[in-house]
Amino acid sequence: MKLTGAEIVWEVLRREGVKTVFGYPGGAILPTYDAMTKYPDIHHVLVRHEQGGTHMADGFARASGEVGVAIATSGPGATNMVTGIATAMMDSSPMVCITGQVGSKAIGTDAFQETDVTGVTLPVTKHNYLVTRADEIARTLREAFYIARSGRPGPVLVDITKDAQQSTAEYDWDAATPSLPGYRPDLHALPDEFERALDLINSAKRPLILAGQGIIRSNSSNLVLQIAEKAQIPVAMTLLGIGAIPAGHPLNLGMMGMHGEAWVNQAIQRADLLLAFGMRFDDRVTGNLKTYAQNAKKIHCEIDPSEVNKNVRVDVALIGDLNATLEEIGPGIKAVDRSEWVNAINELKGDAAVRDIQSLPDSGNLYAAHVINDIWRITKDVDPIVVTDVGQHQMWEAQYFRHERPRTLITSGGLGTMGFALPAAIGAKFARPEREIWVVAGDGGFQMTLAELATIVQEKIKVNIAIINNSYLGMVRQWQEFFYDKRYAATPMVSPDFVKLADAYGLLGLRVTERGQVADAVNRARAHDGTVVIDFRVQKEDAVFPMVPAGADLDNMIRRPKPVAPALPESEGDGEWEMPK
Amino acid sequence: MAKHILVAYVEDKPGVLNRVASLFRRRAFNIDSLTVGRTEKVGVSRMTIVMDTDDVGARRVESNLYKLVNVLRVDDITEIPAVVRDLALIKVAVNSGNRTEVLQLADVFRARVVDVDDRSLIMEITGAEDKITKVCDVLRPFGILSMVRTGVVAMRRGSDVTSEEPPLVPARIVTSAVDQSASDAVMSV
Ligand SMILES: Cc1ncc(C[n+]2csc(CCOP(=O)(O)OP(=O)(O)O)c2C)c(N)n1
Ligand SMILES: [Mg+2]
Fold it and tell me: What is the least distance, in Å, from the CA of A316 to any CA of chain B?
């Protein structure tokens, strides 16, 4: 079948199962947009900024596990994508970005809107391509999808010249099979490595599972739970590992790392064995590497060999798909009574509960942690998907919103990209239209991509947006408070009236200034037909505790000061303190 | 820290050298030399990479190279019997008084004299890196006017392995044998 390159693009997208693409047109991609009209079964979402388009594709991928697709024109369109691509790269999110490029004859001449996009994106993509001929489009796109979703997933960019889109070629799906002799996504550990790992596990007295995003990506939650329960191994989660196992599970300790709970970090420092499942010992979870988990042997179950021994030296590496690794190793793990160890960790929790913000006397102020915990209480029956931005509110979300299921927290971990939440939530909504979605964003980050509110309006979708408005770039302000003598350089932030802003977009805006109004606003938002923006005016100078200062020992945490006034009786609801998670 | 020699077989496609170079830059891997050229097989190029690193560092480079989609195979031939060669062209200042002496030195080192005029001559010399370094040391007093070296190329000895069928080996991981305190470079990222 003879088709234009532009038509081949859509044919391949359709065959790859793509139903939604997020894009923004321009001269160099115009032929592809023109051909789009012949493919009405693929829905195109017109974004307001190409960064938003990439975060949408990323959010789509994280919510669904499928490849997200973003489209942009050459030059500025493509460079606007870079932040979103780097975000997806750092968090191993499968994404295919298609960009138009100037005509192949004009390449290298600094033609209008020419940018060396494959050059610019080389270090932030899993792989990228420049396609200059129509007959290369089908195979290249197929390879792009295959690379994006296999092995350790990641973003792949395909830059297609305008003439390649315009000229015709024979389209044959079967003939365009990927040909990637050097690509090896399917590595497997060796038998003796499994044996060594099992010896370590079965003889450990104080083992701990470090649960990372790899569990979610490889659908291994059940296998991890089986192992944890059988061998009584407590589990600590990374930020991106949240949801990998239920927050309410008795062996789930909560989040580790810089803003992890004190007992979790203390447990890591006391453990005699760390079982790292699909996590990469990022500096945000290890603190000072020289003193990190010195008492522990380490087993690293990881799909990407280049992550092994990168930050932390390990004793055994089990390379390969986590699911396959756990299948193999699971039967050899012996049931051992480790209640002493589990109890010892639980004892560490007591002190933390007293310090917890939930225990603070009600000062009349609205605390972000309360807002987030209240949203969780009210919505927990439906397990909403929460998409956060980056900053203090992100950490409070991780601590005070309890996620019981995989893929219910979507957040930018590795790159920490402000402006991620709103567009990523739009992508998540397209992936999971039936699910309730909450955006939890700061006043700063929300303003980076709020133009996408218009996308929401144009697409008539509903998400609930909680702006945790502290009038500061709060996380930076916190560092200034702790480490720069409270010199608040460039962190106080003036924002528009978010209620009026919502109104200007034709959306419902609500404002909340007291704890007593939270539940009402949340319920109104849920009941409302369209997207709702809630401006939560929270305590301005609150800080996220505990905190491991960058580079400090993991158990050397700045703790929340113990309350001076007696703790309030338990908050309404469950009859006992919610252990922050 | 010791010299490691890696041989990488890569697809002969536009931009592949850039990808490899970009990887070294981005990960702050320090390389002594990198050479690239065609092989006996159409579509496959071969890179020889020399670097000063420990075993764990070499494994990191290897596993990162494998992450590049266009890299077909990586061999660490540091411990394997191999022919290792560097080629240099050295232009030495000479006059009628010392020319014979320089020519004799060239003979001793089995260098070929490939160009002569009344004030200089060019020597071509191949050999292991340290041999060439030694030649330079000896010639320096006469005055080295100009020098160029190709960087190391290497090939394992014997007929047991060819690049005919790259056995796709997963990146090897060094684990237990590692002294935790040995490499602060990796620890202090
Ligand atoms: C694009 C980008 N720029 C800068 C930063 C650095 N940064 C991290 S958190 C933060 C403050 C975020 O403020 P806000 O969105 O109001 O959230 P808060 O911390 O107040 O909850 C900043 C500026 C970043 N992570 N991303
Ligand atoms: Mg703020």
Answer: 6
Tokens 């909340």 locate to A512
Region of residue A287 (phi > 0: left; psi between -120 and 50: alpha; otherwise: beta): left
Whether B176 shows a pLDDT value over 60: the answer reads no
CB A252 within 8 A of CB A404: no
User: Which atom of ligand 1 lies nearest, measured to the CA of A474?
Assistant: 20
3-state DSSP percent of chain B in helix, strand and coil, to 5: 30, 35, 35
Query: Is the domain covering B83-149 a CATH 3.30.70.1150 domain?
Result: yes
Instruction: Judge: B173–A147 Cβ closer than 8 Å, yes or no.
Output: no
- For residue A163 the two structure tokens come to 């003439």
CATH 3.30.70.260 fits B1-79, yes or no: yes
A84 in Cβ contact with A154 (< 8 Å): no
Domain housing A505 = 357-537
Q: Is residue A204 part of a domain?
A: yes
The mean pLDDT of chain A is: 94
The CB of A341 under 6 Å from ligand 1? The reply is no
User: How many CB atoms sit inside 10 A of residue A108's CB?
Assistant: 10
Q: Return the HEC string of A547-581.
A: ECCCCCCCCCCECCCCCCCCCCCCCCCCCCCCCCC
pLDDT for A402-432, tens place per residue? 999 999 999 999 999 999 999 999 999 999 9
Domain boundary among A351, A368, A384: A351
Contacts of B168 in chain A (CB under 8 A): 184
pLDDT in the model for residue B186: 30
Q: Is A393 in the pocket of ligand 1 (CB under 6 A)?
A: yes
Q: What is the dihedral of CA A524, A526, A531, A537, to 10 degrees?
A: 60
